[in-house]
């Protein structure tokens, strides 16, 4: 992390980024943030992030769109909701981070944390086709996309899970897969939230 | 009316023991369940990270199926529980979204009236609706002397549930006490296990798991009891990895609360998926199992006086 931070003067602040969050329930509350740091102190993974949640909220308000969307912080969030629970201003931090992840994926800006984004995308690919997640396929797709060599390192664990009936060799597809297809087609047609 | 049992995808694979034990203990503990026919994935955290309207609509298909049957949903997986509830909540709060999602559902010949299906967790129903006393009455093999760390994780209590405190929940503590077990002090009970970071950033998830295991060990727990398939998977299947990264020697069985409910009423190991865990629990539980139908031995004066 760099010691020197970018300074954004008020006159130069872009407000259109914060407006993008208006559609997220509770998203408009970013404006109410008092920078108390409760979110960062409550976050179980903030020490791994390049920008802590508190700082991320300040950056959103400062209109630092590129830096926010390219921050690895988004992809460390595990959706534990501790920040959302404790925020004294009732800011739905977790949901805001979800919204930022979606924008980052849409714009292909997941460079620094491509693995977590790839995992989320692999998951939806599997469910789109089957209607359900099938863990062995998910992990195979994910590792092939990100780091095929790492899959070898996981073979032992896979075998141990298989031996205990926890890694089935064939997955199911729901009978109503046509309903899922229709839902996907329609949702893609409408888009947004 | 039975509950629409919604196992979710993990319970068909890595969390199979949770599915087996949930089904096995449902009837004996007074829960009538019937699997929700042709359910689909709840969307988990991934859909929400990729496409928002689709995430809501995919999740809402399950609510629509339950509504058609006039049933409330029972979801043992914490992620399913939270996502299905959140979908219903958003649809209730946001009329524009409700319209859009129903528009999408119509394309599949479905519709959903927000608020018409309630989503519950088996822990909530067992303790909050049945009551600890009812649980106690059903116990045949009290888990006396078994020291458990009650681990709730995140998504069963957050962002918001009515049945328990979101930071210091006690439902599982009450249930374990009712089963005869001793609940140890476990201040990290609702901290995160790392969830899917285990795949995308293993070092981060391993560190969180190490903290959870260490706290349980330091407080004298024999095992950790979980309510979530991902928590169980991370703490159980990656415990060896924690040990190799941190030089620790954890050998802590990670059990589902439904497995201990089953043991306490005398169900056999196979019916509860015991033996599917990678850190074996049988040595720990042997003294409570294989007990033939419990017949109270008459207390004699000599056994008292010794």
State which percent range the strand residues of chain B make up.
Answer: 5-15%
Q: What is the rounded Rg of chain A? A: 19 Å
| Named CATH topology of the largest domain in chain A | Fumarate Reductase Iron-sulfur Protein, Chain B, domain 2
How widely separated are the two ends of chain B?
54 Å
Figure out the total of helices of chain A. Answer: 12
Average pLDDT of chain B, rounded to a whole number, is: 93
CATH architecture of the largest domain in chain A: Orthogonal Bundle
- Describe the global form of chain B: globular
Give the CATH level 1 class of the largest domain in chain A. Mainly Alpha
- Work out the number of β strands of chain B: 8
β-strand percent of chain A reads under 5%
Category by helix and strand content of chain A: mainly alpha
- Unreliable segments of 5+ consecutive residues of chain A: none
Can you give a write-up of this model?
The complex is a heterodimer of chains A (193) and B (306). Chain A folds into two domains: 10-109, Fumarate Reductase Iron-sulfur Protein, Chain B, domain 2 (Orthogonal Bundle); 114-190, no CATH class. Chain A is an all-alpha fold and 193 residues long. The mean pLDDT of chain A is 89. Chain A is 54% helix and 0% strand. Chain A has twelve helices and no strands. Chain B contains 15 helices and eight strands. In chain B, helix 2 crosses helix 3 (52-69). The longest helix of chain B has 18 residues, at 52-69. The model of chain B is unreliable at 292-296 and 301-306 (pLDDT under 50). Chain B has two domains: 3-120, Up-down Bundle (Glutathione S-transferase Yfyf (Class Pi), Chain A, domain 2); 141-288, Rossmann fold (3-Layer(aba) Sandwich), CATH 3.40.50.11810. Chain B is globular. Chain B is an alpha/beta fold and 306 residues long. Chain B starts with a strand and ends with a helix. The chains are: A mainly alpha (193), B alpha/beta (306). The interface between A and B is large, with 65 and 64 residues.
